[in-house]
Amino acid sequence: MSNYDFKQVILVRMDLKLPKGKLAAQAAHASVEAVLRADSAYVAEWRNQGMAKIVLKVKDQKELIQYFQDAKDQGIPASLITDAGHTVVAPGTKTCVGIGPDEEKVIDALTKDLKLL
Question: What integer pLDDT is reported at residue 3 of this predicted model?
């Protein structure tokens, strides 16, 4: 058992104004892909703690990619979701980023300025 709380955050672009169902699917893609890239011990501890997920807003693609790059630069598992374009957005549209699971304090330091969806 760890001495740290773990969580995952999912960043969603607000400028796309995605329908709720599309947003939920894209957020799920981001969550799963980030988990697949994460350290298995962190994933196990995160699961034991209830798999906390927080969905946060970013304003546009530039901000989305900046947070993705910052997470990668800090060694935090992260996924950038690019839509295939079969429904409501153009092919290649970057919609969401999943960050973590990782220690809550590490993720909070990165995403503290973002607002809840």
Answer: 81
